[in-house]
Amino acid sequence: MPHRSVVSAFAVLALAGTIPASQSASAAPAGGRPVYVTNSAMEFGGVPPGGPPSVARFASSPAGALTPHGTVPAGDRVRGLVFTPDLRFAYTANASGSVSLYKVGPDGALTPNGAEPAPGAFGIAISPSGHHLYVGNVAGRDITVFGVQPNGSLLPAGTFDTGDEFVKGVAVTPDGRFLYVSHGRPDDTVARDLTGFALGANGLPVSQVASERHGISGAEAVITPDGRYVYVVCQASDEVFGYRIEPNGALTSLFGAGSGVAAGDFPEGAGISPDGRRLYVAAGGVVGPGGTPGQVLGFTIATDGTLTQNITPVTMTDPIGIGFAPDGRHVYVSDFWENLVNAFAVGASGDLILVDTEPSQGSRPAFDSVTVLPNKGPVAAFSARPAPAGYPTTFNASGSTDADGRVVRYDWSFGDGTVLRDGGPAPRHVYGAPGTYAVRVTVRADEGCPTTPVSTGQVASCAGPAAAPAARIITIT
Description:
This protein is mostly beta strands. 2% of the residues lie in helices and 52% in strands. The protein folds into two domains: 9-372, YVTN repeat-like/Quinoprotein amine dehydrogenase (Methylamine Dehydrogenase, Chain H, 7 Propeller), CATH 2.130.10; 378-476, Immunoglobulin-like (Sandwich). The chain has one helix and 40 strands. It starts with 8 loop residues before the first helix and ends with a strand. The model is unreliable at 1-30 (pLDDT under 50).
């Protein structure tokens, strides 16, 4: 039975009832973290789209609930959304043959900022440094590389052949050294390759380092935040394939050559939790009379990269895009056929608990259609009022800021061997002798990001570290 076939009104209503729409659990506060859904507006199965292509923005509450904040125009058949690490610019891939450019406002609002040609644009990824953008050609076998300029514009840097047809998933390792590409179309009948390339300083490949046969119709490819493993879901063979990334970029199968793990019916989307412990797969199912609803399946990732499906699956009509909040406590999943996005809380065991269901503010959210605005990280700053030796010198780091959260901890080093952990923003310290001292404060933000950026292949979820230092020299008389 074909996937996403034309359905009767009765069948659509029956499947839609698997997860009832819910009211928001609580209103998103001002400045709630933005969640984006790209609405492709594809005509599918003879059913016209419900509006033009768009990028929808939502604000997420601390409980994960979503509040719609409207849409901006997008290119035809838009897929994917990535941000520069400074969160000033964003880019989408449009299968009609272009990349759309956006400016990002302080509240996460997007403003269209032009477009650049990119044949068959489908999979999209940005290097962790933010210097290069990679766009795969789903109608061919090449990737277009752009240099990202300081003003957000894109400078074509060249194209390269990936070694197989129908480029689908594009993923860059967290250290920016390697790029991996999955290949396939939904109607494929033969297995294709996951190819890998070592990248040079100019963003272009210097050599091909891997070519491993994955299943039939490779779709989204994702990489663990430690850069050790890459996984690709395959639509037509209903599997997820996994590989260990060797130091030179070569790939070693985790399940035996040519072998994968069952991943539901017609899996297309994938997401890895920011802590790297779990992989979630969006399997679209078979839509139509006598068909089966889709599922979001969860796997625990072992230290050796192998997968165990020990997380309760969640039923949806046609899940496809998966996006994690930076702290990993919530995940958002789009539904292609129902034109909606589900918000889930992630339980301690990895189980997904439905928090909210909202219309996607457009039609047909497709491949890689959910992105959460990355965490930017705090900025540390402090002042000092030196006092003579034997008297308390006062410090004040209350001017430290976190643009998308709040500073929750201040760790101090006073330069005389004294360390004060979690000492608050305004400690006092008595120096025993005159002299010059190097004082340092490290501030930490509230969103659970580690001290280094976190990326799972396409865009960083933690674009800036959760901790930031500031230092200055003081003189005690």
